[in-house]
Amino acid sequence: MAINISSASPEIRERRLNSITSFKGSASELHEKSKAGSLKTQPSCYGQCSDCQEFCANTLLTFIQDAAVVCHSPIGCYSIQAVRDNGGHACARDRKLPDFKCETICTNIQERDTIYGGVEKLKKACLEVHKRAKPSAIFITTSCASGIVGDDVESAATEAADELGIPVIPVSCEGFKSKIWSTGFDAAFHAIAKHIVKPAKERKKDVVNVYNFQGSDVFTPLLAKLGLKTQYVVPMNSVPQLEKISEAACSATMCETLSTYVITLFSERFGVPEVKAVPPYGIKWTDAWLREVARLTDKSDVVEKVIEEEHKRIEGPLNEYRERFKGKTIYIIAGDAFTHNLANALTDLGLTVIGINALHHDQKSDSESVDTLGTLIESVGDIKSFTVCAKQPYLILKEIKKLKPDFLITRHEGLTILGYKLGIPSTFEGDANLSVGYDGLLRLGGRLWENYITRKFNKNIQEHSSFPYTDWWMNQEGDAL
């Protein structure tokens, strides 16, 4: 698939990947209908909560070490920034890097600005953030408000760049453009590839780009077993580091949803080959991922020995977890492809995945070689309860109560409370890196078991809490889920 890097922003996922936010059926049905592109998002009369692509774009850009981000938005759109800052500090400490220092500022669009325009305020914000932080680059993320008003963000960015002598980069991520908030990841990567990354002067055969969220440094020890170095993209990079990521031997992802767009873009624009394997979650998926990395880095002569040694090393504790979890069921709530990754790893631990709720679903992929849903079905069999529902607790709750799983695992902390209030041992998978690879599988088993042996905590919460939904609503059949 050819990507148009000259455009101001990537095509939204509804058009590019035929993405949807509603489905109810089985995994095999979802996969087969996706091949035909026949699924459509069903209209809903009510939405309880959501995210937007501006949030996702900021999630990546605000973790670039020496950059600055100007959020051209009302202050409410900016309010989540404090959480990002805390995550940045923690991630920097975990990776033994200098303290996180990306400067962010909000133009605080108000009613007056929606009438007279906010371009002058935006220019002042760029000058102010440069004065405070002296960044190597400034990113301007747009919002619904700036998009509706029609502010000429590109011209403002060009004028600021000429005055400041650094790249000032507009990132088109107005929330109303797409109901698939992961489009914001594409917008951020598009801006970085278009304005920051330079063609490679050399190819570093021992460096692997790993596109991921901020999180624990688990890929470094995994790839070091092959004598390779990990270069995380984007979190914790500096602008000069991002300029040279085209020099890597290959590009890998820990989430198909997050980064197949940028991996395909890098393959087409900079000639960086893609690791054509599903992410390393679970034994066989990790084996396949390592073999593909090894093929692209001329390490095929050592990879089989590494795989054999790793299997032997984790065999004992892995069998213990499988015995503990035998006959137990689990329900997964997470982003699109990350549910597939978790389901494969959890099945390796001996759990039965009784149901999945993905927050959206891409019927196609930017990378033709990656099909995590199809590979999951081949690996673990069909999953009879597979729903797509964009963070709507009033619908997800009904499915969990019907299936009665022994465990719940969620990617987003706001949804973990559903399990607590139902008395179910619930695990928050906030750090998406934690369950990667062979050691990650053991870590995942350990966290699940800790929650299980302390399940009385959940029972206590269940006894002293309630949901705001009536019995009439909970007993309704044929809802929109």
Write structural notes for this entry.
The chain is an alpha/beta fold. The protein is built from 22 helices and 13 strands. It has helices spanning 13-16, 27-36, 53-61, 75-78, 81-94, 111-116, 119-133, 144-149, 153-164, 183-195, 219-224, 239-243, 256-270, 283-296, 300-324, 336-348, 372-380, 393-403, 413-422, 437-453, 456-463, 471-474, and strands at 22-25, 67-71, 103-106, 137-141, 168-171, 204-211, 229-233, 248-253, 329-334, 352-358, 386-389, 407-410, 426-428. A 6-stranded mixed beta sheet has the order 1-11-10-9-12-13, with helices on both faces. β10, α17 and β11 form a beta-alpha-beta unit. α14 (283-296) packs antiparallel against α15 (300-324) and α16 (336-348) runs parallel beside α17 (372-380). The radius of gyration is 22 Å and the shape is globular. The mean pLDDT is 92.
Descriptive terms for the model:
48% helix; globular; six-stranded mixed sheet; alpha/beta; 481 residues; single chain; 22 helices; four-stranded parallel sheet
Helix segment tally: 22
Beta fraction of the residues?
A: 5-15%
Helix content: 40-55%
- Rg, alpha carbons: 22 Å
Measure the end-to-end span: 32 Å
In the predicted model, the low-confidence regions spanning at least 5 consecutive residues are: none
Q: Average pLDDT value?
A: 92
Query: Structural class per helix/strand content?
Result: alpha/beta
Number of strands: 13
Instruction: Name the assembly state.
Output: single chain
Overall spatial form: globular
> Largest beta sheet: what is the strand line-up?
1-11-10-9-12-13
- State the major sheet: 6 strands, mixed
